[in-house]
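Lab manual, section 2.4: Encoding a predicted structure.

Procedure: take the sequence of the chain (339 residues), apply the prediction step described in section 2.3, and record the output as structure tokens. A sample record is shown.
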Amino acid sequence: MKFRLVEEFPTELKESWNLLLDESSSHVPFLRFEYLQEWWDTRGGGEWPQDSRLAILVAEEDGELTGIAPLFIPGGEEPSRLMLLGSVEISDFLDVICCPENLERFCAELLAYVKENQIRLGDVRSLDLYNLLDSSPSLATLATAAQQLELDCSESVLQHCPYIPLPGNWETYLEGIDKKQRHEIRRKMRRAAEDEVAAEFYITSDPARLEEDIEDFLSLMEQDTDKACFLTANMRDHMKRTMRCSFENGCLQLAFLIIGGKKAAGYFSFDYLDRIWVYNSGLDREYMPYSPGWVLLGHMLQWANENGKVEFDFMRGDEDYKYKFGAVDRMVKRITIGI
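Recorded output:
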């Protein structure tokens, strides 16, 4: 494989990048070219300084794109490290991009390239890779490649990331969860539907309403003190960009529960690869007696089952309600390789 360093976002690779991602051993929405380009433009909503440097390592063979390590070097750090674009806080799952049959060679030659070009890259001392799913083949493959090059390598568990495998039928799904929780979901959804201000389920689909719905969703988020602090001006800009970009590419699910004509709860998710990837949420505290979060999640799960989705991914975080809805656990990990 022939590696080259890309230090400006490679718009000419957009199509081939996403085609390779379609075949990659790890395929998640946070690796889409469009998502990572927006992430880089805002430096993760302000998580990283503007003087951070792009260091995408692209591998080609016989003129064909065979692997991508979407990396950057954080600004203001000594010694330097290579990190995955999207790190750390707002991109739940990350990885390198390579099809399974080439992954072993790609990882081995990637580490060899970084070791040989350590000074050229800015005297980097490590690859510090966050948010790889525990099922990612890259974890073992990178560790093996590091061992062969006699490089120090460590792996650690970062967070829980529960998900729900979907049977494709709402009633079958309900029968598969705890009896008490099944009763609670049904009761709360029925009560909200039968109230005089009957609750309605709404998913943004009209481009003319997108901006209004985005602003309403962010307003719902801000009712939570922690989320209000999270939504700095830079982060608001990033969130808006991500929702617009996802809508343009047909993978945004911006879902609301409407009560009495007002948005009582909202969920921002990705509808991608026949899965719902739940990204963030917001609630209007005025409507808490209606349990708007639970009711909206119930509607989303019913919709997902009825629309051929195979998985409902809550992504990072071990909040109790996720398990009450029947989620099973997995983890995201961090692998660090000294150079």
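Check your result against the sample. The mean pLDDT is 97.
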